[in-house]
Amino acid sequence: MKYIVYNQQGKQVGTTLLPKEIFEVKINPDLIHQLIILQMASRRRVIAHTKGRGEVRGGGRKPWRQKGTGRARAGSIRSPIFKGGGVTFGPTKERVFKKKISKSMKRKAFFMILSAKVKNNLLILLDKLKLPEAKTKLMAEILKKLPSKEKSSLIALPELDKNIILATRNLPKIETIQTRDLNCLDLLSFKYLIMPKESIKIIKETFAKR
Q: Which terminal residue of the chain, N or C, has fewer Cβ atoms less than 10 Å from its own Cβ?
């Protein structure tokens, strides 16, 4: 499959071949939805936490003797029935929201999203992406000339490039990520995927089944 390649001035400089097994996969919305729910659950942070009777302070001494007082037996004032005691069945940090899915399903859903980007012309391939210095102005000028026109975009870098990362972080709706760290949730969070054509090889090596 041939796909257009642009230079940093936004001009077409040729075409490149996209691997059919990665960029021409039949789309299954249910599988993609399943994986997105899984990723969102895995990223969920557990904040709410209440202390049980073993975590609250105090209660080392038996509050009153076992018999002869006419009162019910009590072993600790940190029992949930007392004020200042532990909480019964409250939310705790031990909750786990992570879900599991097979590697083959995860890989397939990832390729489906890449295929959808290609099908809808939301993938922008560049012959190269380099900056002489970490200047936001330079990066903004490049993005303005590309078909994405500074709209919501994820830039996939073939390797760590501090100049591009620093030049991009102040631009709204623009994020950078290393190609080997690409995932479904990040791909769907941005309209366009921008990457140098070297990234295709990294996707193939990292995600394609060997």
A: C
The residues, ordered by sequence, that sit 6+ positions from 171 with a Cβ below 8 Å of its Cβ are: 136, 139, 140, 143, 150
d(CA 210, CA 195): 23
CB 99 within 8 A of CB 92: no
What is the per-residue pLDDT across 113-170, written as a single tens digit (0 to 9) for each?
999 999 999 999 999 999 999 999 999 999 999 998 888 999 999 999 999 999 999 9
**Measured distance CA(105)–CA(103) in Å, rounded:** 5
Tokens read off for 178: 């290393």
Domains of the chain: 2-44+102-207 (3.40.1370.10), 46-96 (no CATH)
Structure tokens at 123: 């993938």
- Looking at residue 184, its pLDDT comes to 92
Contact 187, 155 (CB under 8 A): no
At residue 47, the 3 state secondary structure works out as coil
Strands 2-6 and 123-126: parallel
Query: CB of 157 within 8 A of CB of 180?
Result: no
